[in-house]
Design goal:
Elements: H1 5-18, E1 20-25, H2 30-35, E2 38-40, H3 42-51, E3 57-61, H4 64-73, E4 79-80, H5 96-105, E5 110-114, H6 119-123, E6 127-129, H7 134-139, E7 147-150, H8 153-163, E8 168-170, H9 176-179, H10 183-192, E9 198-200, H11 206-209, E10 214-215, H12 218-227, E11 232-236, H13 240-248, E12 253-256, H14 271-280, H15 289-306
Parallel strand pairs: 1-2, 1-3, 3-4, 5-6, 5-7, 7-8, 9-10, 9-11, 11-12
Bound molecules: (~{Z})-2-methylbut-2-enedioic acid.
Length: about 300
């Protein structure tokens, strides 16, 4: 999508001048995804940011914890955000003080933190997980050790149900965007498009997941929709995902379970703000060295255990 050629051409001049690598999350608006060097999930993007050898700076189009993860994995290279107000309400549902209180009640529990947490929370975590690998990460914890899973109760419930693990304490956080997707929306969408598989994110409510044909992370949705012989799909996650799926699969149709699954934070990043940040370099994401060092440990543990 090239909705504003003059703006896009100015961005292109400046990204070359700055030698900037532009990364966009799967949930970003279509025109931002279209100008990015890479589009993906938060961990894929953070790893690209860490591994790229050429760029002098990263412009991360996503929400704050995602840019932080890129800083944690390669702190010496500047990471900027077009809009630093793009936060994640789910990540904000756990504070260090609250976590310390719950840990005091479960002193031997392994703290498994979804990547959708702040760098500070990662410093108090034993291991991180993504929605793509949460089941395997929890399974890597010895069965007799309690697991404190945070912050998403729906993802935690999905993991628990899949492996039947009882000794999981699940934080009561949720993604407000995924929580807007209701059972009745799935039923209505199915009635409108009978035959189209319903693919939903594990951050959805249990009753929504129960109605789905496939439950997948954003990366899993990309694979499922590319490989499936179906020609149309009903998607239950943040609606920016449909832009990615439509671009990847021009011959297929994608419909949201509901248009209400629209994250206002993801929508804060616009092409104008991408341009302004490349011009002004005002919003560098900076973390204290000790936070970076400590927060990297649970991410590295995840990568070591899973090898991905
Ligand atoms: O980790 C991510 O990028 C998020 C927020 C979701 C997913 O399933 O990829």
């Amino acid at each position: 999508m090239d909705s504003n050629p003059a703006l896009v051409s100015r961005i292109d001049q400046l990204r070359r001048k700055r030698n900037a690598l532009i990364l966009a999350h799967n949930y970003e608006i279509g025109e931002v995804q279209a100008i990015a060097d890479h589009v993906g999930d938060s961990l894929q993007l953070a790893r690209i940011a860490a591994e790229d050898e050429d760029a002098e700076m990263i412009l991360f189009c996503g929400v704050h914890f995602m840019a932080e993860t890129a800083v944690i994995l390669r702190p010496e290279r500047p990471v900027h955000m077009p809009d630093p107000n793009a936060g994640c309400p789910l990540a904000n549902m756990v504070s260090s003080r609250q976590l310390a209180e719950v840990r005091a009640e479960h002193p031997d529990a392994a703290v498994v933190s979804y990547v959708n947490t702040s760098a500070e929370i990662k410093t108090h975590s034993d291991i991180c997980c993504t929605s793509a690998n949460a089941v395997a990460v929890v399974q890597s914890i010895p069965e007799d050790r309690e697991v404190l899973f945070l912050p998403d109760r729906n993802l935690g419930d999905w993991v628990r149900r899949q492996i039947g693990r009882q000794n999981m304490v699940i934080w009561n956080g949720f993604c407000p965007t995924h929580n807007r997707i209701l059972e009745r929306h799935v039923k209505e969408a199915r009635a409108e498009r009978p035959g189209a598989p319903v693919v939903v994110h594990p951050e959805c409510r249990p009753e929504v997941r129960d109605l789905a044909d496939e439950i997948a992370s954003t990366g899993g949705m990309v694979r499922f929709c590319a490989e499936s012989p179906a020609r149309e799909f009903i998607i239950g996650t943040e609606i920016g995902m449909l832009e990615r799926l439509r671009r990847d699969n021009p011959g297929k149709s994608f419909w949201p379970v509901t248009e209400l699954a629209d994250c206002p934070n993801m929508k804060l990043t616009t092409l104008e703000k991408v341009l302004w940040e490349l011009e002004d370099l005002e919003h560098r994401v900076v973390l204290p060295d000790e936070v970076v060092d400590k927060a990297r440990e649970p991410i590295e543990r995840m990568v070591e255990i899973l090898g991905n």
